[in-house]
Amino acid sequence: MAALSNIRPSDAKLAQFAQAYATHRPLIQRGLTAGFVLYVLTTTYRGLAGRPARKRDDKGKSGNDGKPTRVAVDAVFYQRLGVILRIVIPSIRSKEALLLVMHSSLLIFRTAISLYVAALDGKIVASLVRGRSLEFLLNIIRWLLVAIPATWTNSWLSYVQNKLAIAYRTRLTKEVLKQYLGEGSEGPEGKVYYKLSNLDDRIQNADQMITHDIQHFSTHLAAIYSNLAKPVLDVILYNYQLAQNVGAEGLVILTILVQSSAALLRAVTPSFGTYTAQSAALAGSLRHTHSRLSEFAEEIAFFGGEETEKQLIEREYAAVVRHEEKVMASRWWYGCAEEGIVKWLWGSFGLVVCAIPVFFKLPGVANFDMGSRTEGFVTNRRLLLSSSDAIGRVMYSYKDLAELAGYTSRVSLLLDTMADVRKGKFEKALVSGATEGENGKLLRSRGQVYASEDIRFDGVPIVTPNGDILVRSLSFYVKPGEHLLIVGPNGAGKSSLFRILGGLWPVYGGVVSKPPASDFILIPQRPYLSLGTLRDQIIYPHSQENMEARGVTDADLFDILAEVQMESIVEREGGWDVVREWRDALSGGDKQKIAWARLFYHKPKYAILDEATSLVPPDMEGTMMVHATALGITLLTVSHRPSLWKYHSTILEFDGQGGYVFTKLDAEKRLRLQEEKQALEAKLHDVPKMRARLAELQALASAQGS
């Protein structure tokens, strides 16, 4: 009895607590629900914010150990993403922002439809249990009617998401191409497409980044919004409605269990961002190897290098396969853990929560008949499945976000590298000793470039992108009309000089005075022929509209072709508008003539001729030289053909050892000296034969004397 007397006060307190809890349960429910919403938003933000950025190369390059830098959802990712978002969504009034608003409205509308369908599903099953046929038919009609806006909404969501992906890709591609193929301004900001591949080592396959990586980034970015916003909204709304049906207490228990298992799943999630970035890089390397085979097919065919090239391609492909197999293995075991937790473990948690109103008397909740219980269970089960699916999609979205981080790192690397190149900051593998002593000091300095009608170099070093100093201090002066001949051995600095004149290479010291790059035209030994018509080959890079705006007609182009003895090509190829792969349709000599016709069309102030007449007859090269002079074009010519000397007034001769001579060119005197030199060389070549014959004669004379 004493023991019972001790228990009864506790029972009384418990009863008082239950009564007080039942009285204040609506307020407690609201507090728990509000706390749940706040918790979902906070944990989602923390989960998506990822880990703090580790100390690493901010360009996403490989570390000192040669391993690729880990790409993760961290502060660096969000910083990069923020920069790109300002490009793809430039303002709140932009097309992309309006599409986002429309997308958000459709997402909310679809969630509202899902809530209505969950309740309607329960009513349909309840009408079946109660045997009410009219109510069942009316609910079926409601089901069919709600299908109209539901299917419309789903189709519109897919359409708007694809429109967003295209809009993002268009904005980003335009911005990249604007920087990559800009106006070609003077100084370090122009010719980015050239400097990216020749002066910097960070990007080996810009074409793959601009096409493949930007496309995948845009698609992932458009999808990530719905993959994040919709599930988070669903989690809040579905669980709010679930809390009204089963009580916020069960929701709190469910949240604790789900978050605990989700933390375990997050801990074992592989680095999908790193995998994505590596996959893109390996695919780009394989594509680059194939493109090199096409580009140098002729040389490879002559050398018979098929087996070597096959091994190179197979090696690149094997690297891709090894990486993909590694990713597949990671996805396999992660998929097992993910489905086991998200689908089955969370499903069991949900069934327990749905059973709470059936097996337990909740304070403030009335008893229901079998139909009401069935309706409540089906509705709650539908809400729970939707909520579980939404939580699962939030978990999946982290994987999607990690993949987005991989593509973001690739696009960011392209943008950052182009920005550095425009500022004249290059990262290039340098020759031994290039960073030490005077060489290093020279590479860290910059010269001055001024606009001028003349060409003047005062103490300008000629330095290659890899830090090889060809000439430490070059000085010469060329006036308009004074043709300059440039000679010297290979690797002495002839082509490097032209690249400085064209604004392609930086000036590491001294003073350069020259006209803008637009006043120069280069004719190399193998001229570039564009895709397009025969007319396009002559007027490149002008369009037909540009040509007509200059007052030039097809008849004028025909006269230009006559200057290079190529007028018959118009009739032979089928007219001005015929389209060919001209680099295959024309011979080497015809390509050089077309390039000279292009020169005569544009009439620049200066023409850079790099062995530009090596494949045409000597009489034809003389005709073209004379006509270029008549048009007022100053020629800067690299050639070893003595027949061209008479067309030049000055000569710049490199010795290949860092020295040079710049002087007036007396063609007749130089020819005489050349002839005398060749005669002496011929005589010296015969000296060993003469000595051998002299020895034979001496031996014969000695034999006869004896």
Explain this structure to me?
There is one protein chain. This protein is α/β, with parallel strands linked by helices. 66% of the residues lie in helices and 8% in strands. It has 4 domains: 30 residues; 366 residues, ABC transporter transmembrane region fold (Up-down Bundle), CATH 1.20.1560; 224 residues, P-loop containing nucleotide triphosphate hydrolases (Rossmann fold), CATH 3.40.50; 31 residues. The strands form 3 sheets. Strands 6-9-10-4-11-12 form a 6-stranded mixed sheet, with helices on both faces. Strands 1-5-2-3 form a 4-stranded mixed sheet, covered by helices on one side. The radius of gyration is 39 Å and the shape is elongated.
Structural class: alpha/beta
Largest sheet: 6 strands, mixed
- The CATH class designation of the largest domain is Mainly Alpha
The helix fraction, in percent, is: 55-70%
Oligomer: single chain
Sum up the overall morphology in one term: elongated
Chain-averaged pLDDT:
78
CATH superfamily of the largest domain: ABC transporter type 1, transmembrane domain
Task: Provide the low-confidence segments as ranges.
Answer: 1-7, 55-67
Number of DSSP-assigned strands:
12
- The strands making up the biggest β-sheet line up spatially as 6-9-10-4-11-12
Question: Helical region count?
Answer: 21
User: Which CATH architecture of the largest domain?
Assistant: Up-down Bundle
Structural domain count: 4
Under CATH, the topology of the largest domain can be stated as ABC transporter transmembrane region fold
Sheet-strand content, in percent, reads 5-15%
